Amino acid sequence: MQLQKKSFESADEVRPMADKGRVEILKIGDGVVGKATFEPGWRWSEHVKPIAGTDSCQAAHFGYVLSGRQKIVMDDGSELEYGPGDVVAIPPGHDGWVVGDEPCVVLDFAGMEHYAESR
């Protein structure tokens, strides 16, 4: 690995999530960082499920919430709501949606390598 710097202003890739958001991808060092912008009305089961082809999100996420709110419901029924300043760990097997009228923006350091990637 070498000393590097990148910016989301010139992301390596941008993946749309239907008409309700996008994921900006940076490949840096040995990893991938995603900046996900979920617009009001976004829901994983409506806007990413058709891309992923699974019944629930199978990516594990480890992220920092910059703005907005989101609710997560796991396949087992457990729930979590998060917002600005929260650090979240979300295991595979979940649905999620934006809560409120503000976009939810999350920096994800674990689950974005193939998230919302067209097959």
Describe this structure in words.
The longest helix has 4 residues, at 44-47. A hairpin with a 4-residue loop joins β1 (13-16) and β2 (21-28). The protein has helices spanning 44-47, 49-52, and strands at residues 13-16, 21-28, 31-38, 61-67, 69-74, 79-82, 87-90, 94-99, 104-108. 7% of the residues lie in helices and 44% in strands. A six-stranded antiparallel beta sheet has the order 1-2-3-9-4-7, with no helix packed on it. A three-stranded antiparallel beta sheet has the order 6-5-8, with no helix packed on it. The chain has 119 residues and is mostly beta strands. The chain has a single domain (11-100), classed as Jelly Rolls.
Distance between the termini: 29 Å
- From the 3D coordinates, which CATH architecture would you assign? Sandwich
Mean pLDDT: 95
| Percent helix | under 10%
List the uncertain runs: none
The CATH topology turns out to be: Jelly Rolls
Biggest beta sheet summary? 6 strands, antiparallel
Counted by DSSP, the helix tally is 2
Taken together, the total number of domains comes to 1
Rg, Cα atoms, Å? 14 Å
The count of DSSP E runs of length 2 or more, i.e. the number of strands, is: 9
